[in-house]
Amino acid sequence: MKRVLCSILVVLALTGCKDDDTNLPFTVPFTPTPPVIQGETAIFYNVTARDPNVNAGAQVFEDGQTPRTLTVTQGSPALSSAMGAPEGFENFFVWDPIQDLGPGLHRDVVVRVFGLQRDLGLPGDTAPLIVDLTDRLDPLTGAPSLEGAVIAPLPDGSVWTAGGLQGGSLSLAGYRYDPRTNTFTASDGLRIARRDASSARLSDGGVLVVGGRDAQGTALAAAEVFRLDAAGNGATRGVPAGLLQARTRPAIAPLQNGQALVVGGATSGGPSPQAERFVPDANGGRFVAAVSDPLLARTAATATRLPDGRVWVAGGFDAGGQPLGSTALVAADGQSVSPGPTLGNPRGEHAAVALPDGRVALLGGTTQAGSDAGASSVVDLFDPDTNQLQNLPNLQRGRRGVGAAYTRGSLIALGGSGQQDTPQTAERLALEDTAWSLIRVPGLARPAARAVRSGAGHVIVVGGAQVPERYWPLGFAATEGFDLVRAPSRPRARHTTTLLNQGFALVAGGTAGIDSGIAGCELFDPRTDTWNDTGSLATARQDHAAASIATGVLVVGGRNAQGVVASAELYNAFSGAWEPAGTLLTPRADATATGVGGRRVLVAGGVDAAGNALSSLELWDPVSRSFTAAGSPRRAARRAATRSPRASTWCSAGAPTPRARSPAPTWSRPSTCSWAPPAAGPRVARARPLRRPRLGWS
Questions:
Q1: How many whole angstroms separate alpha carbon 470 and alpha carbon 43?
Q2: Short-list 3, 87, 11, 83, CA closest to 43
Q3: How far apart are CA 159 and CA 452, in angstroms?
Q4: Which of 266, 313, 585, 602 is buried deepest, with most CB atoms within 10 A?
Q5: Exposed, middle or buried, 484 (CB in 10 Å: 0-12/13-18/19+)?
C-alpha cells in the first residue's frame, strides 16, 4: 500500500467580535504544488489569534458535494486543542483520505479547516485537489483489455466496443460503456472473430463492422451490424453475403439513409480501387458496387463524411508500401470520384476527426507502413468549403496509430507509438492555440489507441492491450486527465441496471453466458467508483424488467433454465435484501416496467413462454404487493411502455416491420388504467419507447 506523506498549509486566523453571536473566524489556505495527494497527508495550520473558547474543525468534500466531517487519523494531534495554543503556534493533524473518500481517483477534493464558536464560522478552503488512491482499488475483474478492437458511440450516449485481441487471442466479446456509472459491461459482440476491422456509426444508429483478418492473417469479407432495439438492448446481426471483396483495414464512412461507403483496404491482389456501398434491408443489408478508381487504391487511409454528403478519403499507402499524399472526394451517391487537395506530408495509419463546423483534422500517422520509425507529428486541417488544407501546430510527439477526438473546443491526441514515451503521453490543442500542451495527468501506455467521445464531453479510450480509460476535459474538473473505467466483478449480459433515489445503481440478474439466469446482484457506489455485492434475487432470471420506486427497485418476470418467470421481487434499498412482491397474472419476459403515480408500476407487453407477443398490461400495487389487469393497447406491444407528460403512460401499439407505418399510439391515465386514442389537440410527436437496456440502465 502506497503511503505518501505530503502536506497542506492552512493559516487559521481568529477574530473576536464584541457580539458573541457574530464571532466569525476565518482561514487562509495554502495548497501544495502539484495539488495531488496519494496517501496520508499532514495538514498544517497556524493559530494567529488565541481564543480558548473557539474550537477548530475540519471537513472534506468533493465535486461540489455536501461537506462532511473529516476523519483525523488515530494518534494525530486533536483539532479541539488548537485554539488554546499560544498565538502563532503551528499545529497539524494527519488525514488518510481512504477513510473518507474510499479507493479510486477523486477530483475536485477540498479540505476545509475552520474555527467555530456556537453556530457561526467563516471557513477557509484549499484549492481543488486530486486524491489518487487508485493503488488501493481491487483488481479490475472483468474489465476488457483490448487490442485492435472496434469502438463506436451509440445513440443513447453509451459506447460499444468489440472484437480484436484479448489475452493474445482473437475475441468475439462485446462490451457497452455506461457513462452514468463509468463502467463497461458485457454486450452482444461479433459473430466473426477478427482484428484490424473497420467500423462506422451509421446515420440510423447502427454500427457497421467490415473486413479485417482472422487468426491466420487472411483478409475477411464478413460484415455485421450492431444495433439497439426499441428498449435499448443491443444485438449484432450478420450481413448475409458480406463484402464483395475481402479486405483488411479498409476505410469506411457513413452515408445518408443508414448506408455506408467502404473504400480501399488490402486484398489478395493489393489495395482495392473498387468502392462498395452498404444498403440496409430487412434481411440485414447488402453490399453493391460503387465507383472504381485508382485514386481509391490505398490501405491504412481514412474516410470522413462531409456536411454536403461527400466522402473525403485521405492518406494511406500504395501497393509498394509508399505513403500517399493524394486525397479523393467521393460523391454522395458513391458513383463518382474527383481529386482532393494534396497532403504536404504523405502518410498513413493516421487519425481523422470531423469537427462540428464541417472541417476535418488529420493527426499523426507514419511515413513507413507498419513502422514507428516514420512516426509523424504533422496535423492538417481540411476545409471542404474552400477545398484547401491548412497546417495546424505539430504534435509534441510523432504518433503512429494515434487515438484522437474533439471535445469542448479542443483536439485530443493520445497514445500511439513512435518515441519511447509516446504511448504514455497525451496532448491537447485548442484550435486557436499555437502549440499542443501535454496533459498533466497521463493515461496508460497505449499503442494503437482508439478513442470516441461519450456523453457531454468525456472521451473513452481503448486499445493497446490495456483496460479502458475515460478522459476528463478541462471544465469537468480543475485538472484534466484520465481515470480507469471499471467493470462489475461478475461479467454479465441481459440484466437490468436501475438508478436508485440515493444515486446508486443496482445491477440485477442477467446471464454470464453459461448458466441461464443469475441471481447475484451488485451495487455501484458513485462516491467511491466501486462495485459491491448486495442481496441476491430469490429467483435467478434474465430478460426481466425493473423499475425504480421510492423504497427500492421492483423486478418482474424474465426467464431462466426453468422457463419464463412469473414472480416479482422488491429490492429494499435500506436493508439491501430482496422481498417477495407478488406474481404476475401472465408470466412474461422482455417486458417493460414503468413507475406511475409515484409508487405503482405498470408492466407492459413482452412475450410468453411460447415466444408470442403479449398485449396485456398489469399494474402492481405496493400496498397489497399484487398485480391487477390494466387493460391493453390496441395491439400486442413488446418492450413498449414509456413515460409521457402529466404522469400518463404511452405505449407504442405494436411492433411494425421497418417499412411499415407505425400505428397510432394509445394512452392510459394511472387513475383509470383505461386505454384510448389521445384526445384531439396539438399534434404530438410519436412517443419513443422507454429504453431499458440490459447493459445500460432501466
A1: 31
A2: 11
A3: 8
A4: 313
A5: buried
pTM check: above 0.70: no
Which of the residues in the chain have pLDDT under 70?
Answer: 1-34, 45-56, 63-65, 74-91, 103-105, 115-124, 134-144, 181, 455-456, 475-479, 486-493, 501-503, 512-516, 526-530, 598, 631-698
Strands, DSSP E only, in 426-542?
426-430, 437-438, 449-454, 458-463, 466-472, 481-484, 496-499, 505-508, 521-525, 530-534
From first CA to last CA, the distance across the chain in angstroms is 38
Residue identified by cell 491482389 is 269
Residue 35 in grid coordinates: 495539488
Question: Which amino acid, residue 98?
Answer: I
Please name the residue that has the C-alpha cell 488525514.
95
Q: Which residues contact 9 (CB under 8 A, 6 or more apart)?
A: 29, 30, 32, 44, 45
| Cα–Cα distance for residue pair 521/225, rounded to 1 Å | 30
Beta-bridge mates of residue 253: 261
Phi and psi at residue 184, in whole multiples of 5°?
-100, 135
Cα–Cα distances (Å) from 193 to 162, 172, 214, 284, 385, in that order, read 9, 5, 7, 19, 40
**Cα separation, 584 vs 99, whole angstroms:** 44
